UniProtKB/TrEMBL annotation:
It catalyses: octadecanoyl-CoA + 2 Fe(II)-[cytochrome b5] + O2 + 2 H(+) = (9Z)-octadecenoyl-CoA + 2 Fe(III)-[cytochrome b5] + 2 H2O. Its cofactor is Fe(2+). Its main location: endoplasmic reticulum. This is stearoyl-CoA 9-desaturase.
Length: 315
């Protein structure tokens, strides 16, 4: 027989077991919470590190992309090739430096070839004749010797405005060292020094990747913008309105308009819309660093649309 005290012990034992189980569960849950907190802290720190790396990479890459692209669009193209606006000496120096960062031939050679392209568009005298196919007009023309007609017609152009420009002459004389410094050294060393980025990442992202992107954005104007898109201003020529090219090349994709009215500083009927280069030039005019931007009248545009457009114009 069991005594009353033994019965009380037997009856109370399940309660003790339950309390022990509850305590062990609470310990486990608290441990799990601590583990989850530590995991979340690690995840958050990793996210912050990734975000910091992304900022360190994208910020200098974007800045270098914009500067080098403007060296082509606002500099070699709209200023020196077409003389569509006037720029003060400080602005011309900036655009000359930016053009060296772009590394797409010096200003003199770029402007000369582009003038030949406009005057003899899509003929053998066109340096990147789009009738020879996408690959040739995009990059192939740089991999072969120039057609004799390109050289011959280029020699006949009046380039006195370029040879008399001190910035153009200086950049042409010191083009190779300026390219080494601006296209490769500056985009590599600045993120490394100011952002704490590694030299390897700085070299491959803000320098090489950015350079490759700007090259292809410029080449798309010669290839894609001569093949795909509408022709609302002149259906008799191949250059097209291509918004993707306009976006990537800072406004240079409104190519049917540009070949119809090459002296318009905006290269587009719609001003700053999808056209960061026009916004840049307008800003320089506001600051007094640029002046006399040439523009086509609304009446002339409408007359040309009705006379030679393909009917796709949307005002």
């Amino acid at each position: 027989m069991t005594s009353p005290s033994q019965e009380r012990q037997v009856k109370s034992s399940p309660v003790k077991d339950k309390s022990k189980a509850v305590k062990s569960k609470s310990k486990k849950t608290s441990q799990e919470r601590q583990v989850n907190k530590s995991k979340s802290k690690r995840d958050n720190s990793q996210r912050r590190q990734v975000q910091a790396i992304q900022v360190k990479e994208t910020s200098p890459t974007t800045v270098c992309y914009m500067i080098s692209a403007l060296g082509i669009t606002a500099g070699a193209h709209r200023l020196w090739c077409h003389r569509s606006y006037k720029a003060s000496l400080p602005l011309r120096i900036f655009l000359g430096v930016a053009n060296s960062m772009a590394f797409q031939n010096d200003i003199f050679e770029w402007a000369r070839d582009h003038r030949v392209h406009h005057k003899y568009s899509e003929s053998d005298a066109d340096p990147h004749n789009a009738k020879r196919g996408f690959f040739f007009s995009h990059i192939g023309w740089l991999l072969v010797r120039k057609h004799p007609d390109v050289i011959e017609k280029g020699r006949k152009l009046d380039l006195k405005d370029l040879t008399s420009d001190s910035v153009v002459r200086f950049q042409r004389k010191f083009y190779k060292p300026s390219v080494v410094v601006m296209c490769f050294l500056v985009p590599t060393l600045v993120p490394w020094y100011f952002w704490g980025e590694s030299l390897l990442v700085s070299y491959f992202v803000p320098s090489l990747l950015r350079y490759t992107l700007v090259l292809n954005a410029t080449w798309l104007v010669n290839s894609a913008a001569h093949m795909w898109g509408n022709r609302p201003y002149d259906k008799h020529i191949n250059p097209r309105e291509n918004r993707f090219v306009a976006l990537s090349a800072l406004g240079e994709g409104f190519h049917n308009y540009h070949h119809t009215f090459p002296y318009d500083y905006a290269t587009s009927e719609f001003g700053c819309r999808v056209n960061l280069t026009t916004f840049f030039i307008d800003s320089m005019c506001f600051l007094g660093l640029a002046s006399d931007p040439k523009r086509v009248s609304r009446e002339l545009i409408q007359t040309r649309i009705q006379r030679t457009g393909d009917g796709t114009h949307r005002g």
